[in-house]
């Protein structure tokens, strides 16, 4: 079970009226390398991974939902006051005719989320290598969204999220080392 | 050494005299600190809790802020 804290992991502030940024941000909401994919991937893989690293997948998977919530807050703030005409100009007409003002799990090109974005291979090393790749791809996606955005406050939150990808990647790499049983091996000959 | 000299690498893609657009020069890509760490050593220096919450990591050794258009500017 989970305990919910009614606050965001990091503050989300949007300083420019630019609904087009919402279109870019949904890549991290319902895209292949987005936060939803990450959360579902790790929290599912954790059942069939060795005991030593179950807790890591549990903790990181949980944090990904906190990131998903931050992205949702950003998208909502950027679109909630926009007129249908402004949404059209921002390239969100396709979204509007299907979802109105609601958020939805799709990527920046409006392709809906699919479970085929994630995998559970049941082989601990294969699964952890996928997780490392997922973190690096999410890190890169944050870089490219920052490049597209002139909103300094939004970019501040995105920089925080990118830094978390770096930390998560290292933890998954350490998990691989633990499973290789290199961690505590005596290196004295 | 400056931060982005360590965590950004660059290369210069071939640019032909016949290419229609100006040569943008060096392309930069991120190689963040965790790639070099292996297993994180014990007792590394820490940010204060307040700084860590702001930066997204407790560890200065893992801190790698990305600037807009770092790909172009390095």
UniProtKB/TrEMBL annotation, chain A:
<keyword id="KW-0106">Calcium</keyword>
<keyword id="KW-0464">Manganese</keyword>
<feature type="binding site">
    <location>
        <position position="67"/>
    </location>
    <ligand>
        <name>Mn(2+)</name>
    </ligand>
</feature>
<dbReference type="Pfam" id="PF05067">
    <property type="entry name" value="Mn_catalase"/>
</dbReference>
<feature type="binding site">
    <location>
        <position position="59"/>
    </location>
    <ligand>
        <name>Ca(2+)</name>
    </ligand>
</feature>
<keyword id="KW-0479">Metal-binding</keyword>
<protein>
    <submittedName>
        <fullName>Spore coat protein JC</fullName>
    </submittedName>
</protein>
<feature type="binding site">
    <location>
        <position position="64"/>
    </location>
    <ligand>
        <name>Mn(2+)</name>
    </ligand>
</feature>
<dbReference type="InterPro" id="IPR012347">
    <property type="entry name" value="Ferritin-like"/>
</dbReference>
<keyword id="KW-0167">Capsid protein</keyword>
<dbReference type="GO" id="GO:0046872">
    <property type="term" value="F:metal ion binding"/>
</dbReference>
<dbReference type="InterPro" id="IPR039377">
    <property type="entry name" value="Mn_catalase_dom"/>
</dbReference>
<feature type="binding site">
    <location>
        <position position="135"/>
    </location>
    <ligand>
        <name>Mn(2+)</name>
    </ligand>
</feature>
<dbReference type="InterPro" id="IPR009078">
    <property type="entry name" value="Ferritin-like_SF"/>
</dbReference>
<comment type="similarity">
    <text>Belongs to the manganese catalase family.</text>
</comment>
<feature type="binding site">
    <location>
        <position position="168"/>
    </location>
    <ligand>
        <name>Mn(2+)</name>
    </ligand>
</feature>
<feature type="binding site">
    <location>
        <position position="35"/>
    </location>
    <ligand>
        <name>Mn(2+)</name>
    </ligand>
</feature>
<keyword id="KW-0946">Virion</keyword>
<dbReference type="InterPro" id="IPR007760">
    <property type="entry name" value="Mn_catalase"/>
</dbReference>
UniProtKB/TrEMBL annotation, chain B:
<protein>
    <submittedName>
        <fullName>Spore coat protein JA</fullName>
    </submittedName>
</protein>
<feature type="region of interest" description="Disordered">
    <location>
        <begin position="1"/>
        <end position="32"/>
    </location>
</feature>
<keyword id="KW-0167">Capsid protein</keyword>
<keyword id="KW-0946">Virion</keyword>
<dbReference type="Pfam" id="PF11007">
    <property type="entry name" value="CotJA"/>
</dbReference>
<dbReference type="InterPro" id="IPR020256">
    <property type="entry name" value="Spore_coat_CotJA"/>
</dbReference>
